[in-house]
Amino acid sequence: MEPGAVSEWEGPLLGSLNSSGILEATAFSRAPALLGNSSYNSSDYSMPFQGSSTMLTAIISLTVFIVGLVGNTLAIYVVLRYAKMKTVTNIYILNLAVADELYILGLPFLTTQNVLSYWPFGSFLCRVLMTADSLNQFTSIFCLTVMSIDRYLAVVHPIRSTRWRRPRVAKVVSAAVWAISFVVILPVVIFSDVQDTFFSCNLSWPEPRDVWSMAFILYTAILGFFAPLLVICMCYLLIIVKVKSAGARAGFTKRRRSERKVTRMVVVIVVVFVLCWLPFYIINIVNVIVILPENSLMVGIYFTVVILSYANSCANPVLYGFLCDNFKQSFRKVLCFRKTNGVEDGDPSVPRTEKITTHDSFLPPRNHEFNGHVQSSQQTLGI
């Protein structure tokens, strides 16, 4: 492209274009930033998606939004509502569902920006939504990392880890995950704004912009994906070694079967997360190295990458329902509006001390500590 020329694809798409020629690692800037230079002429602007294409993207986005909103709201509700759902693993799943819910709530704003070709909601809402978007990215992968470490402790060190694998500890760890995630995304909080050039919600880096953009992409990819993924892989490698070495040993068969079931669910959730997010990080890193071509194929690829990341947030509740019997039963009770007698979970395997726990709180009665929850975890989910 000649210096000063205007790209055919300049302008906001599914987010906003970045004048540095680099894809930003947040939802509202997940668009084909393939400008190759920092010049822009708004009078020559043209949208790559028009007419039926824009309508198609809006329909797909709306479908993902509805499925994700309903699914995650349902997951949050059943964990908070039913006593038997208040286990260590489910507390981490609750936080994952909250992160997914926050993430999916930004999709209508992103779609509106795509349809209108500019950001109409102002600077404050831009900053809020980009912060929530980035917070989900890090909170999700950090929650999955913590869940994998928890699975490692449950399978490899089942006795020694008992004191650490309690709902109270899980809540403290979850709070730490959110706090750490917020600290990590401070650059987004500081630099997100409505760009004067594209009138879109994006990251407005100081000079030199190219250096800041590339540094942020690498920073996000390492801290928000590859480093946690390495920890996750190590956890499951050690779990595999432990399971194989203990393969033929007798005793605690039922508990081991429950542990493997929960471990399998967490593994599937992690694998789906990686499949949905890996393309985005690969394209980001490739675009740091080389300028990707500006054509309709790349526009389609970027749209797929964007929707894939959102699709992960609506896939998780489906996975909970298919892979966890307790989630499946709780979903059925809510959707069928079934009434139960005495307690809302109606599960005979839950000890009476747990059944009298208040419905809307994780915290048990003062003098019961978490013994009821720990016992229930072992009987229902094996955790």
From TrEMBL:
InterPro entries: GPCR_Rhodpsn (IPR000276), GPCR_Rhodpsn_7TM (IPR017452), Somatstn_rcpt (IPR000586), Somatstn_rcpt_5 (IPR001184). Its main location: membrane. It comes from the Eukaryota. One of its GO terms (cellular component) is neuron projection. GO terms for molecular function: neuropeptide binding; somatostatin receptor activity. Keywords: Cell membrane, Disulfide bond, G-protein coupled receptor, Glycoprotein, Membrane, Receptor, Transducer, Transmembrane, Transmembrane helix. Residues 71-320 form the G-protein coupled receptors family 1 profile domain. The keyword Membrane applies. It is a multi-pass membrane protein. The chain crosses the membrane at residues 55-80, 92-111, 138-157, 169-191, 211-241, 262-293, 299-323. The keyword DNA-binding does not apply. It is found in: Cell membrane. One of its GO terms (biological process) is cellular response to glucocorticoid stimulus. Belongs to the G-protein coupled receptor 1 family. This is Somatostatin receptor type 5-like. It comes from Astyanax mexicanus (Blind cave fish).
